[in-house]
Amino acid sequence: MRHTLLASAALLAAFLVGCQQQPPANDQLDAVLWTQTSIEHELIYRQVFASATRQLDVALATPDWDALPLPPRRLAGLPPAVIVDIDETLLDNIPLNARDIRNDQAYGYDRWNLWVEQARAQALPGAVAFVQAARQRGIKVYYLTNREHSQVRATVDNLRLRGFPVDSPEQVLAAGTPTGHCEQAGYGKDCRRQWVASQARVLLLAGDSLGDFVQAAHNSLDAQRRAVEPYLGWLGQRWFLLPNPTYGNWYSAPYGDQDDLPMARKRQLKQQALQLQP
User: Fold this and answer.
1) Which residues contact 226 (CB under 8 A, 6 or more apart)?
2) What CATH number is associated with residue 44?
3) Does residue 262 belong to any structural domain of this protein?
C-alpha cells in the first residue's frame, strides 16, 4: 500500500511539474511557426516575385498598362514605376512576433520602434531579385509603407543593407509623409498612390494586404470584396498579393479594431467570427 501511495504521489508531482512547464497559449503561435519554418511560405514568395518579374516586360511593352485603381488617365510621357509595400512584402519582421511569443508578451509599439531603428529585418525570398530586376529595366521603385515618417532614414538603411536599391529617401513614402500633401491621410495609402500616379505610369503593385492595392470603405469582408471586385482580373498580372497570416486588418476586424479590449474578450469575438456552415 505504501509503495502504491508513493508511486501515485510521484505521478502527481510529475503531472504538476509538467503542467507548470506548459508554454502559455498565444494566438499567433501557429501562424508565426508556419511563416518561419514552412517551405511553402518560402516557395510562395519566390513564385509570386518570379511571376511579377515576368510581368515587367509585358507591362513595359503595353503603353496603356496601368496598375492603379484610378479613372483612365493620360499615360504618355510618364516614366515607368512600380509600387511595393515593405513589411512582410520585402522585409521580414516576424522574428519580433516570435520573440513576443517566447516571452509571453503582447505586441508592443516600443519594441517595434526599436526594431525599426536597429534595421535588423532580413529580406524575404525573391524580393531583392524582383526589385533589382525592375531597376535594371529603368523602372523606378516607390516603397509605400505604414511605418512612421520619422522612421524613413532607418528604413532606407535597412533596405540598402539587404540589397534593395534606394537612390533617394523620397522613394520611401511612409505614413504621414508631406509628399503629395498626404500628412492628414493617416495610414490609408490612396493619397500616396495618387501622388505616384502624378509622377509615373505604375506597372505593378505588390503587397501583403488589400490596402496595398485598394482602400475598402470599412474593415469588413463584405466591404473588402466590394472594393476589389472590379480588379479581380488584375491579380497575378498587375497586382501581386503575398500571404501574411500573422497580422493585418483581418486580425482585428472581429473585435472591431478595439485594441484595448481584454485578450479573453478578443478571443471570444474571434471564436464567434468562425463560420461553421458553408
Assistant:
1) 216, 217
2) 3.40.50.1000
3) no
